[in-house]
Amino acid sequence: MVVETDSFKKISAQAQEKWNHLNQGELPWIRIGTALCGEAAGSKQIFNSISNCLEALGIQANVSEVGCIGLCFAEPLLDIQMPGGNRVFYNNVSEDNLKDIIQSHIIDNQIPNKHVFLYSGDIVLEGVTKLEDHPMKSKELRISLRNAGNIDPYDIDQYISNGGYYALNRALFELDPESTLNEVKESGLRGRGGAAFATGVKWSFLASNPAKDKYILCNCEEGDPGAFNDKGILESDPHTVVEGIALAGYATNSNRGYIFIRHGHDGPIERAKTAVKQAYEKGLLGTNILGTDFSFDLEVALTGDSYVAGEETALMEAIEGKRAMPRYRPPFPAQVGVFGKPTNINNVKTLSYIPEIVRKGGQWFSEIGYEQSKGTAILCLSGSLNRTGMIEVPMGLNLKDILFDLAGGIPEGRNLKLVQTGGPLGGVLNADNIDLILDYESFRNAGAILGSGGIIAADERTCIVDLTRSLIAFCQYESCGKCFPCRMGMSHLLEVLERICDLEGTEEDLDLMRSIGENMQAGSLCGHGQLGFNPVASAIKYFSEEFNQHIIGHTCLTKVCNKKRFSPKRTRR
Amino acid sequence: MDVLTTAITNAVRSQEQPTKTVLSSLLAIQDKIGYIPKESMEIVSLEISNTTVNDVWAVASFYPNFKFEEPAKCNIEICWGPTCHIAGAMEIFEEAFESLDITEEGRTQNGEIELGFNTCLGACAQAPVVAIDHHLIGRVTKSLLKNKIEELK
Fold it and tell me: How confident is the model at residue A570 (pLDDT cuts 50, 70, 90)?
């Protein structure tokens, strides 16, 4: 039972009243997903058209932008809720059918109508699938994404009325920093940024440092192609991240924090900035939070385009305003971090779990998941799949569950050829790995990494050599240039792979690449160079025959290598 | 002070966030002015303590999103991340190069449209993705892009 203190009681009562009014008041509530995936499908234009449409029809409604409910393939996705009624979802909404949808739902009260997609709520709608029963949703367990797509990310009250900031309130009034930290330790949560290090242990390094000024950094650099879950969380529910950071600050006796986002991703930036501002206004950030001795300052910092800026020491350099190049370790960030102060860095996903862990207890979280991988995985499904999107499922499902049951398999009756996971530094798996279990260790043993949760599927039209070349082209472009084994190694790997794609490779080329890879691994400061050979190693491991067809047979059976290819001219050499 | 110098100085000084660095100042200039005029280097070095002109150049030259000349009227970015690659980004590039009559990233002959590569636009579920003046367009096809480019011309 969470004790609600007077200061928090007032905040939460206000929020609850507002939420009830939205749901039960006189006006219909229209929500539309405008996260990046929605935006790419045109939802911003739809959002702008809604008010014109309402005006033309002479009706009033509350209209909110929400984040990503996960069904990106169905975007633009809009839902209408009549006071006290179901949420009824409409998919592939366009300027052409918007007016018709609003008119038949709100004015004619005809539900279902021909545009209906799904519904959620207690009143059974004959002939329409319930949101929870949709195949992509059926195995989901939403902890981090619990509010995504349901609440307005620009409104702190909607977060609070759905249980938000209760954890911070609980920590401040019921737990001391040490027992807050213990909850996180007990949960078994591991870092979701890629390295999968135990979060509680990482925090304890910082907590044991007696320094006065200490920093918590939240990493939303997320340059991983194929992963958009960090941005998705910040766009859908920025307050769960803000609260997570504040809790991390409390547990480690830290007093300052940064949310670090790539410049240009306006949705996540705007929503994070608004969330921080609102939390200050409510007294949930700043000096003497909720009237206690705990003070914590948080701001949003931006980086330029740089993939390596997502590496924790490079990230600190970028926050200091310098080139995003990794530092030597030791000293480790918990001793000497950003601006020379002790620092802890966590990924957005990691921090987004913290409020629910502290609210419900570490034990609760540790009971979810699989062996050493506790909790859920937040996955971004993209590529050759019938249903692409962002899902949160318990660890322990296998790739078949995810790619076929949830994502609906490969379109047009094609076959799965390969799965690329964990970003460009991850690995490439062939279709024989379909039973691979969603678990850090299982993925590592298979030569891939679960990493940030990007899962890209490709069918038989994809050429493995060409895809590997494209992954290495990315890694080469993004090498920061500090360590020459990475800087030169990536360029050499790319050269060799281009040669093989040109069907001019030689039999020595595979060994040559292996030797370059070994040097990169041994001689690079950060994961970019150390893991940079992963995509090539795993591709050669699972698709050696196809490499040989290119090298010995001088043929590309998919014909991809016979086509033109383009890559950027700029490098950081 | 001339207009440009004033604009740069204002951009640097009007940053809202408490932590102001070389990088944040350059991003602010790029946001306000659209590119980094060379005068920025000295101004930023003076505005941010313990910073030399060299330090500013070091940062400006590192991040490829910084542009050093006035932006073209229109900017097209095509994503070449792995998902978009699998989904046919190369054909999208081919169409773009053909429609714009250029052979590599850069500007059209009249200088009005600029085409660039982007490592990931962040909407992988809608691949292939392009951005025209920072507006994302997902599931783009060759003919759709061709029409968009014709509209821009």
Answer: low
pLDDT over 70 at A23, yes or no: yes
pLDDT digits (tens, 9 = 90+) for A415-431: 999 999 988 999 999 99
A226: closest CA of chain B, how far (Å): 6
A464-562 — its CATH code?
1.20.1440.230
Average pLDDT over residues A23-42: 95
From the candidate CATH numbers 3.40.50.300, 3.30.300.10, 2.30.180.10, 3.10.20.600, the one assigned to the domain spanning A372-459: 3.10.20.600
Q: What is the ipTM of this complex?
A: 0.96
Please count the residue pairs, one from chain A and one from chain B, whose beta carbons lie less than 8 angstroms apart. Answer: 179
**Using H for helix, E for strand and C for coil, what is the string for A233-297?**
HHHHCHHHHHHHHHHHHHHCCCCEEEEEEECCCHHHHHHHHHHHHHHHHCCCCECCHHHCCCCEE
The string of DSSP letters for A492-525 reads: HHHHHHHHHHTT---TTHHHHHHHHHHHHHHH-S
- For residue A15, what pLDDT is reported? 97
Chain A residues near residue B12 by CB distance under 8 angstroms: none
Distances (CA, A) of A194 to A69, A335, A355, A461, B70: 24, 22, 21, 29, 38
Fold of the CATH domain B74-152: Glutaredoxin (3.40.30)
CATH topology of domain A21-133: Glutaredoxin (3.40.30)
Nearest neighbour of A226 by CB, restricted to B55, B83, B117: B83
Judged by CB atoms closer than 8 Å, whether chains meet at A474 and B119 is answered as yes
Inter-chain CB proximity B138 and A41 less than 8 Å? yes
Q: How is chain B split into domains, by residue range?
A: 3-62, 74-152
- According to CATH, the topology of domain A156-366 is Rossmann fold (3.40.50)
Spell out which residues of chain A touch residue B83, defining contact as CB-CB under 8 Å.
225-226, 382-383, 456
CA-nearest residue of chain B to A322? B59
CB contact (8 A) between residue A382 and residue B124: yes
